[in-house]
């Protein structure tokens, strides 16, 4: 039975590689023999298991030495407990398949194999949730910039020149509806105000307030045209 277990588990374990903190230098054989001979076979199974656990937790062993220690206990349940503890510090994890040959039961040997295999699988780290924040508006002009914009538009005499200046400036900034109203005030005639309002719609930070600009326009026909324009853009 043991040779069958050894052959099958060798196939399962041949590619096993771990990154655990395995020890480097196993205990020399003469020291290992002294420790093994100090074990007391006449005690209870629980006592014998605890004796071996104490050794594997405090000394560096290779797989062959761990296999030898497993013969000190009588049940495969004890061997699983010891094997699980021993694997994390064994000097030659690539030879750990030798430990399975100490088992009496085929299924119990495979149970230890599965436990060891699960130790080799790195835990899946769940990334923290991504917190989506509202975008920070960085295109709004400073008070000095806005004063310069108004001054530039006001310095132009004709509506077309004012609009040309506005078209040059607008792509670089976004504005509140209140600021757009002040820009419209720089135009003397209703048609110019309407053109400015249309030109700056896409630059408005608070487009839901754009209807307020209708009152900046004098003629009813221009008011209605701006309302239609806003409705068309929104819907």
Automatic annotation (TrEMBL):
Q: List where the protein spans the membrane.
A: none
Q: Which keywords does UniProt give here?
A: Signal
Taxonomy, superkingdom: Bacteria
List the Pfam families hit by this protein, alphabetically. DUF4476
Keyword Isomerase among record annotations: no
Q: Where is the signal peptide?
A: 1-22
Where does the record place the DUF4476 domain? 29-105, 142-230
Q: What's this protein's name?
A: DUF4476 domain-containing protein
